[in-house]
Amino acid sequence: MLRNFPSAAADLLKWTWPEIEPYYEDLQERSLNEDNIHEWLKDWSNLSRHVLEIQCRLEVLTTVDTTDTESEEAYRKFFDEIFPNMQASENKLKQKMLTSELKPKGFEVSLRNMRAEADLFREDNLSLLSNEQKTLLEYDKIMGAQTVQWEGEERTISQMYPLQLEKDRAKREKAYRLVIAREFADFEALGELWSKVMPMRKQIAANAGIADYRSYMWQQKLRFDYTPEDALSFHRAIEEVVVPATARVRERRCKRLGIDSVRPWDTEVDPFGSEPIRPFKTMDELNAGIKSIFDRVDFELGRRYQIMIDEGLLDLENRKGKAPGGYCTIFPVSHRPFIFMNSVGTHADVQTLLHEGGHSFHIFETADIELFHNTNTPMEFNEVASMAMEFLASRYLLDSGMYTEAEAARVQIEFLETNLIFWPYMAVMDAFQHWIYENHEKATDPVMCNEQWSRMFDRYMVGLDWSGLEQYKATRWQRVLHIYKVPFYMVEYGLAQLGAAQVWANSLSDYDAAVKAYRRALSLGSTVTLPELFQAANAKFAFDAPTLKRSVDLMEQTIEELENKL
Ligand SMILES: [Zn+2]
After folding, report:
1. Cβ contacts of residue 172 below 8 Å, gap of 6+?
2. Ligand 1: centre distance to CA 246 (Å)
3. The whole model's pTM is what?
4. What does the CA dihedral 168, 173, 179, 185 come to, rounded to 10 degrees?
5. Mind listing the pLDDT tens digit for each residue in 26-45?
6. I need a labelling partner for 306 at 20 to 30 A (CA). Which of 66, 94, 241, 362 fits?
7. Ligand 1: distance of its center to the CA of 484 in Å?
8. Ligand 1 centre and the CA of 386: distance in Å?
9. pLDDT at 7 over 80
10. Is the confidence at residue 2, as pLDDT, over 70?
11. Does 428 score more than 70 pLDDT?
């Protein structure tokens, strides 16, 4: 057996496909039986980890320094030469595993996922799927070309966003109206694109022998532990218990801002009207503050954050030449996480780091799982790891030394209100997509989509005053990138948020027990089903109004208590 992988990261990055291929061939050629299957899976895991390590390291290198042309070239080469071959070889090994009919212990969930992927695979769909992606490139083009004239200057839509944070309400309104009018002008172009993509999706499902595109996506997203009907129940529960709470969130916003109704240009501005919070100035201050929070959440987690500091696994500050955004990725060979961010000294940076910190602890906790396939945790739970950490950390913001008591209260109120507002927002997008693929023909017509979107928007997004702007509101679905490019993405976050809120509720009665259960659940990787992961965290994988209501009540009650500290 070939077991000598390049050991140094630098050597690994020079690996070429002709050097990697023999490892896949070796695995492909071995005959499998009960006695050697575990060894075979271990060798496969080891190989997959090494190839993925190349991809992740190159992602990091190219984002921390966008001027590093050597890494950029290596990354491009990886996707041209290694990635497609690796995928084809990985697929062949999956086939080999399935046809062996062996059922190794502890591999049940991974086997179920492999079977579903194999069942869905159709040669005919390869060109159709790539055609769909190519067609959708038009979406970015249309969006990217949108600019407006503001104070004599051409500005992109993203460049207009900061104006929504201005205290001057008239200025916000003017900027907002300018932007939505420009966006509305592309209704026809985006509608045409929509009508092109919808028939492709119908055909993709049909080719796979599946009745409708929603069922196709359900299987593609490996959603075995809940059904479309469960998602619909979740929307109904949100309408019943969260929507009234968000009406109260918006009433408070009116009071804080001293306005009669929340117009679309009043949703982003700081409702407390005070000076912006600056929790830290240097990265050392940020690291010290975050470390002290994690130390209090759990001593071992604090120790792990120190490992990330010591081993250079954090690139937090914004600087010239860095890619935008933030992420947490994995170095699979060493089982280490890496966090990338663009901090500029705001509270949002702290919040993001707490979130990504949760993801990084998930990677640490699964380091002892031998088989790589068993660490492929579903998103519905990955986001519990990160969101629960935001909740668990909230009580220690004050102790971190980064906030005054009033500031800590203010950011916690904002955090809880943002969580409340998220559920109905997610529900509109998700319910709308259920409608689309339940009414595939009708929903191919963008005008019909406008009608349905308006109806659903009014149902879930209460307390927002769009009067006089109805025609703009009706086309807002076109602004949701996921609806075009990543169908059915988003409900995962809504479900995870309910899991995270339950972990938080547990922590209020017994903090240490809640953290212990959280860590135990993280350490399971994907060896058990989604409901079992939630259960291990002492939470229920739920869609029902009573479970949701307990979380919503607790959030509202906490907001009320925090308001006294302002
Ligand atoms: Zn996340």
Report:
1. 163, 164, 166, 265, 266, 269
2. 23
3. 0.95
4. -170
5. 999 999 999 999 999 999 99
6. 66
7. 21
8. 6
9. no
10. no
11. yes
